[in-house]
Amino acid sequence: MKINLDTVLSVAQLANLNLDEGEVAGLQRDMNQILEYMAKLEELDTSEVEATTHVLEIETPLRADEISGVLTPEEAVRNAPEHTDHAMVVPKVLD
């Protein structure tokens, strides 16, 4: 399959692109190259290749789920402008 000039112009119109003649010719050439590469890929025998979701084996590093840096209630409210024993006091926002 070859991409012709009408196809490029149709795609450009659908994408609402205003292209000059040079851009149209460039896109036609690029699209045809892409199709040629795809045709080459179809020649490959992939019958013994397992399906993958990613070309690289990537593992998500997990860290140990350890508790650290915990504030006591008194430490948590220490710098609040106003607080009671274990809670910050904020202005009322609802009536």
What order do the SSEs take from the amino end to the carboxyl end, as H and E? HHH
Percentage of residues assigned to helices: 25-40%
From the alpha-carbon coordinates, what is the Rg to the nearest angstrom? 31 Å
The number of helical segments is: 3
Quote the average pLDDT.
91
The share of residues in extended strands comes to under 5%
Distance between the termini: 70 Å
| Biggest beta-sheet profile | none
* Model regions low in confidence, pLDDT < 50 over at least 5 residues: none
Helix and strand content put the structural class at mainly alpha
The counted number of beta strands is: 0
Question: How would you describe what is shown here?
Answer:
- By secondary structure, the chain is mainly alpha-helical.
- Helices cover 39% and strands 0% of the residues.
- It contains 3 helices and no strands.
- The longest helix is centred in the N-terminal third of the chain and has 22 residues.
- The protein is elongated.
- The relative contact order is 0.08.
Q: What secondary-structure arrangement, pairings included, does this model have?
A:
Elements: H1 5-14, H2 21-42, H3 73-77
